[in-house]
Amino acid sequence: MDSLAWHLACTKTELPEPPLYTSAGWDRMTSEDRSRAVDALRQWMNGLYVETAETRAVADRLTEIVQENSETGPGAKAIASVTGASTLGKSTAVRRWATRKYVEWIVGAPKGPAELPTWNPQPTIDADLCPVVWVNLQSGSMVKGFNSQVLDFFRLSASGAAHQTSTAAVRALARHGVRTLLIDDFHLLRTNWKGGREVLDHVKYMNTELGEFNASLILVGTDLESSEAMSDAQLIGRLQPMSFSPYGIETSEEQHAWQQLLYGLEGYLLPHLPRASEGLLTSQLAGPIWKRSQGYVGDATRLLRIATLAAIADGTHTINPEHLKEVRLSKRAHAAEAEIDLRRRSKQSRV
């Protein structure tokens, strides 16, 4: 992804919510109209972002760190990290924060070629303005490869030795008004070989250089707490960690948080299920939804999107347990659900 693709992604208009139909309205549709209506609903649901107390807390903390870094003296800054297991929505949440900040920080900037925002890093120099840079770390990256990803983002050449590309990458970040550099998939960094250790040292160097113009570094990845990279003493000294966890249902507090997530989803989905009753997800199906997803946001939202379409397809216009059972989820979710069933049968056999 380069700065143009990133700009277009950040400024893309979200799809409007499709019209609401009664059960009779769905039944009266021709097959062509029905197909178009289902397509519109599916596309809209696939683009939904459900904000939760957890995602709001992470977004607020990221804003605090970036603001504090922008106001303190030059030099190495605090490094934010966001982690958790796969399919918990961490990258989605951070990306949502990043796109909003990008849009906020380009307000009022004049437009240049390709409608990209511009600014003047120096009185006589015009440059594209890109306050947020998103890099997906490549597995096995060397220092030059990492620098190449940064330079490629700005559509710049990465020729020369590693130290030359390091200088070019830092200059590009400063010239384009970067306030935040986000590195996703940071868990792919392996420090048990010379190249990986060099990249880790280079990331720390980049944090220091970013700090010279009051910019921030944010690391995103899976299970970073157990990563060897996160055991580095210098990194730990700068790190401001945040994490996402699956929703539990053991305590009343956990159940309330789970129901709050489902309540948010109800607000989007139930208006499109004309025979669904209030509390369908938060009360009637809260347990079955958790059993199928084990509280993983990615699996839970996909489960309910597909179940909604199935309920429209079969004319029930409300989600029932059978709809939930029929959805194919991730291998992780199916394995965990099988383990839940096994423990339940084992417990029953001892009674």
Describe the protein's architecture and organization:
- The chain is an alpha/beta fold.
- It has two domains: 15-48 and 247-350, no CATH class; 55-243, P-loop containing nucleotide triphosphate hydrolases (Rossmann fold).
- It has helices spanning 3-11, 23-28, 31-46, 53-71, 90-105, 143-153, 162-175, 194-212, 233-238, 252-269, 280-284, 286-293, 297-313, 321-326, 331-350; strands at residues 79-84, 118-122, 125-128, 132-136, 180-184, 216-222, 239-243.
- A five-stranded parallel β-sheet has the order 4-5-6-1-7, with helices on both faces.
- Helix 1 packs across helix 5, helix 3 (31-46) runs antiparallel to helix 13 and helix 6 (143-153) packs parallel to helix 7.
- The protein is globular, with a radius of gyration of 24 Å.
Helix/strand layout:
Blueprint: H1 3-11, H2 23-28, H3 31-46, H4 53-71, E1 79-84, H5 90-105, E2 118-122, E3 125-128, E4 132-136, H6 143-153, H7 162-175, E5 180-184, H8 194-212, E6 216-222, H9 233-238, E7 239-243, H10 252-269, H11 280-284, H12 286-293, H13 297-313, H14 321-326, H15 331-350
Parallel strand pairs: 1-6, 1-7, 4-5, 5-6
Antiparallel strand pairs: 2-3
Condensed summary:
The chain is of the alpha/beta class and 351 residues long. The protein has helices at 3-11, 23-28, 31-46, 53-71, 90-105, 143-153, 162-175, 194-212, 233-238, 252-269, 280-284, 286-293, 297-313, 321-326, 331-350; strands spanning 79-84, 118-122, 125-128, 132-136, 180-184, 216-222, 239-243. It folds into two domains: 15-48 and 247-350, no CATH class; 55-243, P-loop containing nucleotide triphosphate hydrolases (Rossmann fold).
